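Changelog-adjacent note: as of this version, every example in the card shows the full chain rather than a window. The one below runs 111 residues end to end.
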Amino acid sequence: MLTVASDIEVLARFGRALADPIRCRILLTLGEAPAYPADLADALGISRTRLSNHLACLRDCGLVVTVPDGRRTRYELADERLGHALLDLRGAVVAVEADKTCPDATEKGCC
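Full-length structure tokens:
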């Protein structure tokens, strides 16, 4: 049972990061292999500016890290266990309620 405030904060931070579909796609992509921002932007079909904002969020949350590589900077998950956790979480959610969609956050009753 989670009772320690720091445990709850860590999970809440992870949840906030996963609350955005683009950040989810970034994390899943980095779970497969480290990548450079330009390659990530192309793979995800988003602008480099938009990607940069999401990477900054994920970096600030402590979920991704930068690795200098000559003149370039590569991004990777901060811990390889995050990749496993994402796959496990995705599998669990799909197994439990594959036919459900989350209501819009502005609707009454949504957390």
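Structural remarks: The longest strand covers residues 64-69.
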